[in-house]
Amino acid sequence: MYGISYHLDPQVVTVGERDTALANAINDIQSFWYDTDLETLAEMSSDEVFFKLNAIADDNSTNAIQLSIVENYHIFLSSSMFGEQK
Q1: Helix, strand, coil share of the chain (percent; to 5)
Q2: pLDDT for 74
């Protein structure tokens, strides 16, 4: 599993600029998945996929916003994150 990480200067970057950079990267990643035929994806090593995803992140990075791909990305949610259950 992969995740997108970012580093930015909050004194320079607005929330809108951050959101645009992330949305563009996500769109480009989705295009890569949807536009690449299944056979090619199946033949790619995990290192090749990781390299391609990082190239997309680099293409969507700026001097103020640096995006990167994180391998083995897991999110653990607790019930408290969903609000009080009634």
Answers
A1: 50, 15, 30
A2: 58
